[in-house]
């Protein structure tokens, strides 16, 4: 499961930066136009931190070559363009975008024409150009071929197109995410410190499944926030390509790992000691959680930048929803067994409120996650600046808030107890062990009483004799 997670995260598409690098992609066939990528631009007057510099788009080292190494035909007319997505139909016409004689690409006359730019792609390379962008919103990267279809071989593009916002290279719809993960990182750091201090003062038992699971989820959440914060900071400082960086892979891996560990944490509450047969189900369930969660995370990361059909996002979400419901039933079955045992055995009745509290937290996570999935689906790509806060809310802030809220509730319920405090913590194995200790003590007491009775009887017989 871990190997599949790392490999799949490495090859999955990721799009976090405002730079598209052509690495030898094939040019569309003759007289066609294709959209390839979506940039999100903050105009200087609309930027969160207003600056003097206007956002700009740069076309760098764009060149055309044939796949078989032959010469590019003289009639090749290929260009790369960037234009406001909201005015796509006002600027382009499928019948006239190639211009007179199919030799020169052009935009239609429209008020947004000043923010739409073509850049020719030639075998010898064209001069690098940089243009200012004066309006906020999504911009689409398009590749057009106005030449005739050729059977000589495919033509390939190399070079890059980069958009820089007034505050850096980060995407406009991701700008406030750095602040979100900064606060999340501080929250996990505080929770880790508080949990560590409490465990040290009250005596932490590393052999307890719940305590160990809580510690793992805390560390995974802390790493996830750190990686995302570092990646967003790097994307704002450097013109990264659409393939992202190793930090993206690390963040997505820890995000999936945290979710899987969270589910297993709830299941640990309803399990017996480590020797229980129930542990045989842990590995396949973990693998299913990882394999169904990772595609959804990767597609959600790239959905707002590269063309991904909504149906594909739904197809990636449905298996995750099915495994999530199955895991929830698995969790509730274990918790139900523990609560029934608490009602039957007097020595374990004090644990009943803790198991009930854990069940309520599990229901909260299921319901809130289900609602969140719907809102994430409704967060369509290509929307204007007035929806970018909503995008950051449902994409990052809400999932982190749900996870942190549930984790804090679990930390409180299963906290290590001090001397003289009722043990609102531990797992059933620890409680069962305590009951065994009481039973052993009772047997020892009965045995001692029998010995005293026999000694007293012997003394009385001697006295009579």
TrEMBL record:
Record carries keyword Transmembrane: yes
Keywords: Membrane, Signal, Transmembrane, Transmembrane helix
Signal peptide span: 1-17
Transmembrane stretches, start-end: 180-201, 213-230, 250-270, 282-302, 314-336
Superkingdom classification of source: Eukaryota
Coiled-coil parts of chain: none
Protein name per UniProt: Intimal thickness related receptor IRP domain-containing protein
Species whose genome carries this gene: Zooxanthella nutricula
